[in-house]
Amino acid sequence: MRALRWICIALALLTALPAAAVQPDEVLDDPVLEERAREISKGLRCLVCRNENIDESNADLARDLRLLVRERLVEGDSDDEVVAFVTDRYGEYVLLKPLTTGSNWLLWAAGPIMFLLALATGLVFLRGRARAAAPQEAGLNAAEEARLQAILDEDGRAGR
Amino acid sequence: MITELGHFALVLAFLVAIVQAVVPLIGAAKRWPGWMAVAEPAATTQFLLTAFSFLALTWAFVTSDFSLRLVVLNSHSAKPLIYKISGTWGNHEGSMLLWVLILTFFGAMAAWFGSNLPPTLRARVLAVQSSIAVAFFAFILFTSNPFLRMAVPPFDGQDLNPLLQDPGLAFHPPFLYLGYVGLSMSFSFAVAALIEGRVDAAWARWVRPWTLAAWIFLTIGIALGSWWAYYELGWGGFWFWDPVENASFMPWLFAAALLHSAIVVEKREALKSWTVLLAILAFGFSLIGTFIVRSGIITSVHAFANDPERGVFILAILAAFTGGALTLFAARAQAMEAKGVFGMISRESALVMNNIFLAVSSMVIFVGTVWPVVAELAFDRKLSVGPPFFDMAFTPFVIALAVILPVGSMLPWKRGSLAKTMLPLWPVLGLSVALAGLAYAMTTGESAVGPLGVLLGVWVFGGALVDLWRRTGRGTGRLRRLRRLPGADWGKAVAHAGLGITIFAICALVAWQQEDIRVAQPGEPFTVGRYDLILHDVTSARGPNYLSTVGEIHVFRNGEEITRLFPEKRNYPVARMPTTEAAIDYRFLRDLYVVIGDAQAGGGWTVRTYIKPFANWIWGGCIIMALGGLLSLTDRRFRVAAGARKAPAAGVPAE
Fold first, then answer.
1. What is the pTM of this model?
2. CA angle in degrees (0–180, nearest 5) for B321-B324-B326
3. A131 in the same domain as A68
4. Which residue of B141, B278, B487, B620 is surrounded by the most CB atoms within 10 Å?
5. Do A107 and B636 touch (CB under 8 A)?
6. Chain A residue nearest residue B335, CA to CA
7. CA B16 to the chain's CA centroid
C-alpha cells in the first residue's frame, strides 16, 4: 500500500493543474473596461470545453481568449468590434447568443410563432366551448354513469 | 456467480415483459379474463427479477468485483462505500438498469394498486407499460450490457468521475429517473385510453396521482442537480441551459401542463384529447431527454460519452413509441368529444392559458436545444445556442405565467368575472408593486431584474395565500376550517407559493450577487461587501482517494469573527481530474461562497469570493413546490377513487 501511495502522489504531481476561470492577473485596472470585458466573455464560448463560456472556463484556450478580449478593449475597440474580431477568427460557433441572420431567423422566431399559433388555436377552442350547446350525447352507458356518480359522490362526502 | 444470476434474471425479466406486453392486450380485445389476469403476476415477477438483477450489479460494485468491465471502468477499491453504491448508476449501463428497474416498479405499483380500474383498462395499461420495458430490456441486453466480464481482471479500477463523487449528485439520478419514468405511467394510461376509445373524469382521476408523483420526483431531481452545480462547479452558477439540463426541464414543463389539464378533464370533462396528447408528449420528451443524454449527439457538460449505435437504438424506441402513440391519437382523438361548456373568462380558460405558456416554453427550449444540430445538417452552419438565447426566449413565458397565475387559480369554473376575482387580490398586487418599488429605490442604477423578481414573487406567493384563505369561506371558525381543507387545496397553494419563492430567488441572485477575485496574501485582510476576510493558512490534506489543498479563511463582520471557511482544491490521481470544493457559509438571507485557486508565483493564492443573496431560496422554493405536490397526493379522493390503498409516492425506494 505504501508503494501505491507514492505512485498516487507522483501521478498527482505529474498531472498539470489547469488554471481556474478569471485570474487576478487578467483583471484590468479600469473597472469600467473590466466590466465590459466580463460581459463580452460571458457571450463567448470556450471552444475546447463542452458547454461553457470563456468567463467561467478553466481551459488555457479560454484564458488566451479572455486576454485577447481585454487587449482589444484596451486598444480602444468597441464591444461589437471585439466580438467581430473573435468571430472572424473562430467562426460563429463561439457566439453563445446566436446571430439573427440567415436561417437563424427561424430559431428566433420559433417562440413567438409557436405562441401565436397556440394562442389562436386556444382562442378558437375557447370560443367554441363558450358557444357550444349543451352536450348532446353522453360518452358513458347507464351502468358506467352510475359507477362514475358513485365515485364522485363518495368524493363529495370525503372532500368538502 | 451472483453476477451471472443477475444477468440471467435480466434475460428472464425481458421474456416476462414480452409475455406481459402481448397476452393481456389480446385478452382485453377478446374479453378473456384469464388472459387479462396474466398482467398482474407478470408485472410483479418482472419487477422482482429486475430488482434482483440490479442488486446483483450493486453487489459487484460494493465488493469491487474487478472481473466486471463496468466496475473496472467506474470504480476503485479506495472509493468510499456510498460512492461505490452510487457508482452503480453513475455510468451509462448501470443507469439504464436503474431506469428499467423504476419502469418495472411503476408497472408493479399499477398492478398492486389498480384493483379499482376496469379490468380491460388495467390489462391494457400494464401491457403498454410492459412494451416500453421490452424495448429498454432489449436496449440494455443488446447494446449496453452491464454484466460483461473481463478476460483478465485488473488489479484495481479506474475510479468514478470525481465530479460524481458527491452526495448531491449521488442521489440526483434516482430522483430524476423516478420522474422521467413515472411519466411512462401517464403515457400507458393515455395509450390504453386511446385503445379503449374513452376518456372520462374517472380516467383523469386515475392518471393524476401518477403524473403528480412523477412531477414531484422530477422537481426534486432537477433541484438536486442545480444545487450540485451551484456548490461543485466552482463559481456558483445554478442553471446553464445545458442540453442535459434542458432534457430534464422539458418533461417537467410538460408534466406541469398535464397536471393542470387533467384537472379540467376531472372536474369538467373538457380538454380530453389535449390531455391525452400532453401525456404522450410528456413521456415523449422524457425519451428525447434520454436520447440527448445517451447519444452524445449534442455536446454537454454532463453527457455520458457514448457511441452512435446506442443513440440510433434509442431514437428507434423514441420513434416507435411517440410515433405509434401519436398515430393512434390521430385515429382516435375524434372519439373523445368534449362535454363541458364554459365562458371565455373562467378557470377552464385560465388553465388553457397555463397549458399554452408551459407547452410553448418547453417547445422553445426544445428548438434551442436541437438547433445546433439542425443548423449543421440543414444549413451547414456550425453554431452555438447558449444561455443568452434561452434567457431571452424562455423568460417572457414565465413572466406571463406568473402574471396570470393568482387570478387564474381563483377564477370560478364555467363562468367568472375578472373584477370579482381581483377583489381580494388588489392588496397583494399593491403590496408587490410597493415592495418592487422599494427594491428599485434601494438599488438604483442596477438592472430591473431584481425589482421584477420582487414584483412577481410577492404577487404569486401572496396570491397563493389569498387563494387558500378564501377557501375557508366566511364568518367565524375560518382558522379551524383552514386546517381541515382537503389536501388538494393545500397542495395547490403550497406549490404555487413555492414557485413564487423560486422566481423571486432566481431574480434576486442574478441581480444582486457580488463577486471579488484577487490574490490573497496569507494574513492580509481584504473586504468584500460587508465582510472582511483573512486567508489564514493553506495546507495539504489527503482524502480516501484524493489529495487536497485546503485554505483556511476567517470571515469577520464589524470586527467580529462570524465563521471560518475551508475551501478545497482536490486532485483525484486515479481519475486524473481536479475538482474545486467551494466553502459556503449558508445563511437565511445570503450565502458567502469562497473558492481557492492556484498559488501565485509572487506569493499568495487566488481567492474568489461571492456574496449570493437568497441563494437557498431557489432550492427551498423547489422543495416547497414538491411538498405542495405531496400534499395534493394525500387528497382523499385519489385513494377513494383510484382504489389505491396508499398514495403512489409512499414506499418508493429512493436509494
1. 0.88
2. 105
3. no
4. B278
5. no
6. A139
7. 30
Are residues A67 and A125 located together in one domain of the fold?
Answer: no
Contact call for residues A54 and A41 (beta carbons, < 8 A): yes
Query: Which structural domain range is residue A150 located in?
Result: 104-159
- Helix pair angle (B2-30, B92-113), 10° resolution: 40
Q: Domain ends where: A64, A94, A124?
A: A94
Separate counts of helices (H) and strands (E) for chain A: 6, 0
- Name the domain count of chain A: 2
- Whether residue A99 lies inside any domain: the answer is no
Per-residue pLDDT of B285-341, as tens digits, reads: 999 888 887 776 665 444 454 566 777 888 889 899 999 999 988 888 777 766 777
With beta carbons less than 8 A apart as the criterion, state whether B236 and B172 touch: no
Cβ contact, residue pair B235, A21, below 8 Å: yes
Q: Note the pLDDT tens digit of each residue in B587-636.
A: 999 999 998 888 888 888 888 899 999 999 999 999 999 999 999 998 87
Q: How far apart are CA B365 and CA B359, in angstroms?
A: 10
Using CA atoms, how far apart are residues B464 and B471, in angstroms rounded to an integer?
11
The answer to whether B339 contacts A91, with C-beta atoms less than 8 Å apart, is: no
Q: CA B590, CA B509: separation in Å to the nearest integer? A: 9
> In this structure, are residues B350 and B271 in contact, taking their beta carbons and an 8 Å threshold?
no
Contacts of residue B270 in chain A, CB cutoff 8 Å?
129
Give the H or E element holding residue B471.
none
| Cβ atoms of B79 and B62 closer than 8 Å | no
Which residue, of A40, A67, A94, is where some domain finishes?
Answer: A94
Name chain B contacts of A43, Cβ cutoff 8 Å.
386, 388
Which residues of A fall within a CB distance of 8 Å from B608?
Answer: 21
